[in-house]
Amino acid sequence: MYIGGNFRQVTGNTGYYGSSNFSASGNHKVVLCGNAPQSVHFDSTSSHFNTLELKQPISQYAFDPDGCWNTLIQLEVSNVYTLPKALTTIEAEAFAGDDRLQAVRVPTGAKLKTIKAGAFKNCEQLYEVTLPSTVTSIAADAFDGCLYLTLYVYNDYCQQYAIDNGIHYVRK
């Protein structure tokens, strides 16, 4: 489960299952993927996540209760590429196979319009790409092999691209 905003589990009617606790197990994983500080609150102190993955430094989160997870994974973004403002096209296979690339950011005022075939193909560590509202063309295979990718999209075209290609996205 991906959470881009705040999370709150509220104790309520116990219903059919007889418990109002949120107690995940097995391979259940929650990814806090917001770009801004996020908060997580459980009304019940016995509720928790099984595996919790953080995309930002732990200082960007508020947990109540603290330690509400079985396993914590914190990704450190050390291989971030910020695109030049004037760049209009990411050429075919420009970053293909880069196993160190973790995030691609686009500065305010960027002019990016086109992402060509295989531009990020098999970038297996890539988990975040920002697609500004200026993007109007993305090759169908631009992100093939990017297993953990979240696209941060700013227009309908990029949102539909993510849906059509089965890529997790967050609408900004």
Describe this structure in words.
There is one protein chain. This protein is mainly beta and 172 residues long. Helices cover 5% and strands 31% of the residues. It has one helix and 15 strands. The strands form four sheets. It has a five-stranded parallel sheet with strand order 8-10-12-14-15, with helices on one face. A four-stranded parallel sheet has the order 1-3-5-7, with no helix packed on it. It has a three-stranded parallel sheet with strand order 2-4-6, with no helix packed on it.
Sum up the structure in keywords.
172 residues, 5-stranded parallel sheet, mainly beta, 1 helix, 5% helix, 4-stranded parallel sheet
Query: Which whole number gives the mean pLDDT?
Result: 84
* Total of DSSP H or I helical runs spanning 4+ residues: 1
- What low-confidence regions span 5 or more consecutive residues with pLDDT below 50? none
Record the strand order, biggest sheet.
8-10-12-14-15
Oligomer: single chain
DSSP E strands, number: 15
| Portion in beta strands | 25-35%
In angstroms, what is the radius of gyration?
18 Å
What helical percentage do the residues reach? under 10%
Secondary structural class:
mainly beta
**Outline:** elongated
SSE order, one letter for each helix or strand: EEEEEEEEEEEEEEHE
List the helices and strands and how they pair.
Blueprint: E1 2-3, E2 7-9, E3 29-32, E4 38-42, E5 49-54, E6 61-64, E7 69-74, E8 80-82, E9 89-90, E10 103-105, E11 114-115, E12 128-131, E13 137-138, E14 150-153, H1 156-164, E15 168-171
Parallel strand pairs: 1-3, 2-4, 3-5, 4-6, 5-7, 8-10, 9-11, 10-12, 11-13, 12-14, 14-15
